[in-house]
Amino acid sequence: MATKCPVCGSADIQAENVDESLPVPYGPAATFSTIQYTCNTCGESGDFTGENTAIINEALQESISVSASAILEQLSAEGISAAYFERAMRLPARTTARWKSGELSAAALALLRLVCTYPWVLEVSDADFESSVSKSKLLEAAAGVVASVFKEKVSTGQVDVSMSSSQVNIDVKLQLHGQDVVQVTTGTSEQFTYLGPVALLSTG
Ligand SMILES: [Zn+2]
């Protein structure tokens, strides 16, 4: 049966293939070609046959499946084995192997993406979400991010510490790439001076 316009019923329809892509976290973008119909009688356009949803879903599933394997491989390269992942998350053995072979639920995919982004949540889960462990792992991760931003933005630095019986003075001089010297001076609670852009600590 010929495709007809859903608005005016005309069979004077033209079809055009439209190449599109959708990003998939930690995987290749899903690329697909949808069919866009246009009615030459009334001008209505769209997916007259309703076939595009299936086309998009199939492409998304393919990219998601590749991304799940890529995430597990990346974790493995970071020293996080499938066995540890399963033990830390209290999952049955071989769960991740089943995910890899295609039995991947939406919840499993969400968990994989979270762990890939914040691998330290495995240690928090492994410690039964104990409050002090969750806080220290978060601080540790934040310190790592701050250190990497410093490494990226600061070319040289100098830290001077002087102590007396009543106070500790820490003077930090940082040379930012392509910028003037930023000086940060901290002292006791009575004496605190901060000179320099707060943006230094921003990851943006
Ligand atoms: Zn029409």
Summarize this structure briefly.
The protein contains six helices and seven strands; from the N terminus they run E-E-E-H-H-H-H-H-H-E-E-E-E. The protein is an alpha+beta fold and 204 residues long.
Report on this structure.
This protein has 204 residues and is an alpha+beta fold. The protein folds into two domains: 13-126, no CATH class; 131-201, no CATH class. The chain is 39% helix and 25% strand. It contains six helices and seven strands, in the order E-E-E-H-H-H-H-H-H-E-E-E-E. A four-stranded antiparallel β-sheet has the order 4-5-6-7. A three-stranded antiparallel β-sheet has the order 1-2-3, covered by helices on one side. Helix 1 (52-77) crosses helix 4. The termini are far apart.
| Biggest β-sheet description | 4 strands, antiparallel
What fraction strand? 15-25%
Count up the domains: 2
Q: Detail the poorly predicted runs.
A: 195-204
Helix content: 25-40%
Strands in their spatial order, largest beta sheet: 4-5-6-7
**Structural shape:** elongated
Q: What structural class do the secondary elements suggest? A: alpha+beta
Number of H- or I-type helical stretches: 6
Secondary-structure element order, N to C: EEEHHHHHHEEEE
The total strand number stands at 7
Give the bound compounds: zinc ion
Radius of gyration: 28 Å
Average pLDDT works out at 87
- Report, as a whole number of angstroms, the end-to-end distance: 55 Å
Assembly status: single chain
